[in-house]
Amino acid sequence: MTAELDWKNLGFGYIKTPYRYVANFKNGEWSEGVVTGDDTVTVSECAGVLQYAQTVFEGLKAYRTADGRTVTFRPDLNAERMIESAKRLEMPPFPADKFLEAVDKVVAANADYVPPYGSGAALYLRPYMFGSSAVIGVKPAAEYQFRLFCTPVGPYFKGGAKPISVRVSEFDRAAPHGTGHVKAGLNYAMSLHAIVDAHNRGFDENLYLDPKTRTYVEETGGANFLFVTKDGKIVTPKSDSILPSITRRSLCYVAEKYLNLTVEHRPVRLDEVENFAECGLCGTAAVISPVGKINDRGREILFPSGMERMGKITQKLYDTLTGIQMGTVPAPEGWLREIK
Ligand SMILES: *Cc1c(COP(=O)(O)O)cnc(C)c1O
After folding, report:
1. Band of residue 1 on the pLDDT scale cut at 50, 70, 90
2. Structural domain includes residue 334
3. What pLDDT, on a 0 to 100 scale, did the predictor assign at position 5?
4. Does ligand 1 have an atom closer than 6 angstroms to the CB of 320?
5. pLDDT tens by residue, 77-101
6. Strand boundaries in the chain, DSSP class E
7. What are 120-158's pLDDT values in tens digits?
8. What count of Cα atoms within 13 Å lies in the side-chain half-sphere of residue 78?
9. Are residues 185 and 126 in the same domain?
10. 183 is catalytic
11. Which among 87, 103, 260, 311 is placed 20 to 30 Å from 201, CA to CA?
């Protein structure tokens, strides 16, 4: 039975669902995880996460395919990435097989909340872990909790994918040799001021430059850039402080293997962006959000694809990847994990 929600008009907000998965790390090992109805967390007032932000997270979606299967998209890559994030923050990695078990169990337990095929909605999964024991001197916590909950989210684009406007941010996101490449709440805490400021000035997103030279394009607060050249090549910025988006990596594979396009993963200078024909932002939430213009501290860069619709190649990439996800285009081996 599917829950009675107005799927098409759901936004991106937290809606409590019946079940979540919890495992604890104590005395040097992870406990057996359990599915529970308890949506609250009780920790010490001095927990590592509360004092020194020792927490990492992931984000992925479950949805129904055209032929009625319930699937998640490349969850093994989320499991791997969370291991890398945990290592960087001196947290005990949560094993990939247990991560996949948590994904499977939470989706199965909340099956009523997996939106119907064609609604554009999805069940968003949020795995995360945090230092749960008391820490006052600066050091890693001794105990940790891993949780995975889910919340239904609506179609990202209501009434068509309208291009957005992005500004080059005066604020920096991630230092060289810092934590930009890991999915940690700390990278988001420091981006909140920049995004509120961008919205107040009428922009949808921030384009962050490399903080060292402020000449190369990094990413936005939560999505990677993808550009299309006038001769139809795909270009994605390369930097050690960019979070390796699974969507962006999948789109580049699709570009090469399905659409026969050339893909370049290389440093991208801000001053070459005006030569590109199309621009999009890649992430789980939207797959690709088309970008119509970038404001570089007063100088407007208008992409030829305009402010009305996605660029042609961006649209092809979007259609092919969403087709793979929905089961209407054959998926590469291992990309869809079926939930039974
Ligand atoms: C999560 C995230 C992305 C998008 O990654 P996906 O795996 O495609 O969802 C991009 N940039 C940042 C900073 C992120 O945290």
Report:
1. low
2. no
3. 87
4. no
5. 999 999 999 999 999 999 999 999 9
6. 20-26, 29-30, 34-36, 55-57, 60-64, 70-73, 122-131, 144-153, 164-168, 205-207, 224-228, 234-237, 263-266, 278-283, 287-296, 299-302, 336-338
7. 999 999 999 999 999 999 999 999 999 999 999 988 877
8. 27
9. no
10. yes
11. 311
Of 153, 188, 220, the position where a domain reaches its end is 153
List 26, 87, 98, 183, catalytic entry: 183
219: CA distance to ligand 1 center in Å? 9
- CATH number of the domain within which 138 lies: 3.30.470.10
Residue with CA nearest ligand 1 atom 2: 222
CA distance 66 to 117: 6
Task: Indicate if 148 and 125 belong to the same structural domain.
Answer: yes
Structural domain of 259: 164-321
- Ligand 1 and 183: CB distance under 6 A: yes
Residues 233, 302 within the same domain: yes
Q: Nearest residue CA, atom 13 of ligand 1?
A: 222
Task: Answer left, alpha or beta for residue 19, where phi above 0 means left and psi between -120 and 50 means alpha.
Answer: beta
CB atoms within 10 A of CB 215: 12
Q: Atom of ligand 1 at shortest distance to CA of 59?
A: 9
Q: Tell me how many domains the chain contains.
A: 2
Domain contains 120: yes
CA of 136 to the centre of ligand 1 (A): 31
Closest CA to ligand 1's atom 5? 245
Of the candidates 45, 47, 51, the residue with the CA atom closest to the CA atom of residue 143: 47
Q: Are residues 172 and 210 in the same domain?
A: yes
Q: Which of 183, 241, 282 to mutate to test the pocket of ligand 1 (most atoms within 8 A of CB)?
A: 183
Mark which of 125, 153, 181 sits at the end of a domain: 153
Distance CA 291, CA 309 (A): 9
pTM of this prediction? 0.97
